[in-house]
């Protein structure tokens, strides 16, 4: 159901990440503005960044949902220019979900020799044919030449003997009582022979810079002779799960609850193209959080909870203490309103997710997904809409993200979509973007695919 943007089609070698990003942006026609077009990153943020000098608790207007996603993309582009992250050589078995940073050029002709497309007989000249006693199997040395009136048993993928006229399929031939082979239908010269170089010649570009490495890409790379591919490195993410009330096993008891985000976020982040370097549990202590953030060397820090203004919500005070720059401080979306995005260093960002599970999912898809997608140099999926089957209640002023299942050409809203609930999202295929005021039955709504339901790179969990 996902509509993916077109891939870059330009020849290039050993590009750095920003050049890959430029190719991807230019090829998919992204409508998002580049920071430089607005007088640089700082001026691009000026219209939505809250006043850093505001007192704690001072109210400010939350960033609109579309703009918050655009800000996260611009933050990713800022990092790619500042860090100049070099492409890496990655073994095929660990490259799934990465983005090619160099074109995939054929290292050999494919196929590299004339090969049989079917099981049957290699025949020479007109029928009938005398069948040799030996046979030709895949993976064996070059067979002996055929002469007119001669045939030899051959397997799919085996090398074609010199002077072969055609391959006669097993079901299209019969032998008489003298052992002579005859066809049951006309034989066309060259039939069922895959000639050398039919798919590509050595040096042909098979895939361009900016291509997402899918299972099929891995297969093509292996067939073309590659053991590794040159790709954009994964962004390193460290997850900080905040809270004294969280259990890691057993049933909830005595005011304690199970941590749902610790198990959920790492595979979701991997599906978004990131490398999760650690999941750390931090108690509700300002000093502990300060130490965890200031000693982290990951590209992105992801925190859960503590983004509001309660007595143990230490994320905002900690960010002020370290001089971080708040790029997004609250988003006009439900659930997940108190999410945030901050630049902690020139090349590191912190995404603060709310503590309620579905609100955290909202923050993940609103701020973390665009940021990580840019760092991974993945093209943005093309937006698409479907009509909602049932009316969806909306917030008076904010966007709502509602779990849905896709049934035919409709999106069916799911129940159990409160901020603290995961039952709806666990059964969902996507999230519907519901505008302020809600959506009536049959109204078109934009959909955000979930990685495991998108059919593209949904298997990328490792």
Automatic annotation (TrEMBL):
Residues 23-64, 171-198 are annotated as: Disordered. Residues 171-180 have a biased composition (Basic and acidic residues). SMART domains: MoCF_biosynth (SM00852). Its cofactor is Mg(2+). Pfam families: MoCF_biosynth (PF00994), MoeA_C (PF03454), MoeA_N (PF03453). The keyword Magnesium applies. Residues 238-374 form the MoaB/Mog domain. Keywords: Magnesium, Metal-binding, Molybdenum, Molybdenum cofactor biosynthesis, Transferase. Its EC number is 2.10.1.1. Pathway: Cofactor biosynthesis; molybdopterin biosynthesis. It catalyses: adenylyl-molybdopterin + molybdate = Mo-molybdopterin + AMP + H(+). SUPFAM superfamilies: MoeA C-terminal domain-like (SSF63867), MoeA N-terminal region -like (SSF63882), Molybdenum cofactor biosynthesis proteins (SSF53218). Belongs to the MoeA family. PANTHER family: GEPHYRIN, MOLYBDOPTERIN BIOSYNTHESIS PROTEIN. Catalyzes the insertion of molybdate into adenylated molybdopterin with the concomitant release of AMP. This is Molybdopterin molybdenumtransferase. It comes from Streptomyces violaceochromogenes.
């Amino acid at each position: 159901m996902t509509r993916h943007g077109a891939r870059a089609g330009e020849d290039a070698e050993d590009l750095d990440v920003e050049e890959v990003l430029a190719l991807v942006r230019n090829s998919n026609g992204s409508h998002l503005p580049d920071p430089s077009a607005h007088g640089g990153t700082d001026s691009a943020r000026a219209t939505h960044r809250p006043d850093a000098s505001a007192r704690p608790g001072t109210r400010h207007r939350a960033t609109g949902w579309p703009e918050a996603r655009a800000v996260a993309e611009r933050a990713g582009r800022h990092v790619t220019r500042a860090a100049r992250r070099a492409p890496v050589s990655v073994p095929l078995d660990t490259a799934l979900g990465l983005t090619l940073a160099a074109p995939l050029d054929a290292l050999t002709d494919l196929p590299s020799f004339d090969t049989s497309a079917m099981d049957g007989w290699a025949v020479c000249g007109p029928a009938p044919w005398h069948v040799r006693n030996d046979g030709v199997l895949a993976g064996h040395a070059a067979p002996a030449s055929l002469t007119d009136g001669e045939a030899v048993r051959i397997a799919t993928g085996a090398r074609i003997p010199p002077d072969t006229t055609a391959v006669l399929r097993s079901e299209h031939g019969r032998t008489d009582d003298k052992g002579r082979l005859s066809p049951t239908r006309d034989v066309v010269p060259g039939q069922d022979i895959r000639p050398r170089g039919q798919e590509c010649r050595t040096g042909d570009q098979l895939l361009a810079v900016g291509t997402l490495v899918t299972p099929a890409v891995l297969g093509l790379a292996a067939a073309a002779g590659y053991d590794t591919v040159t790709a954009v490195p994964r962004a390193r993410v460290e997850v900080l799960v905040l809270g004294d009330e969280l259990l890691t096993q057993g049933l909830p008891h005595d005011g304690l609850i199970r941590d749902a985000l610790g198990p959920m976020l790492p595979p979701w982040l991997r599906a978004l193209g990131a490398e999760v370097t650690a999941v750390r549990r931090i108690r509700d202590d300002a000093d502990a959080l300060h130490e965890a953030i200031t000693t982290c060397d990951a590209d992105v820090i992801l925190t859960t909870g503590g983004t509001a203004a309660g007595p143990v919500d230490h994320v905002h005070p900690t960010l002020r203490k370290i001089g971080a720059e708040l790029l997004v401080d609250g988003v006009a979306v439900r659930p997940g309103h108190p999410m945030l995005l901050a630049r902690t260093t020139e090349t590191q960002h912190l995404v603060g997710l709310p503590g309620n599970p579905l609100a955290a999912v909202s923050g993940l898809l609103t701020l973390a997904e665009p940021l990580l997608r840019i760092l991974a140099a993945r093209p943005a999926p093309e937006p698409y809409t479907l009509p909602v089957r049932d009316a969806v209640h909306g917030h008076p002023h904010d966007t709502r993200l509602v779990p849905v299942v896709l049934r035919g050409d409709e999106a069916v809203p799911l129940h159990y979509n409160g901020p603290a609930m995961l039952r709806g999202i666990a059964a969902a295929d996507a999230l519907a973007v519901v505008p302020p005021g809600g959506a009536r039955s049959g109204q078109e709504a934009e959909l955000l695919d979930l990685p495991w339901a998108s059919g593209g790179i949904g298997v990328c969990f490792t």
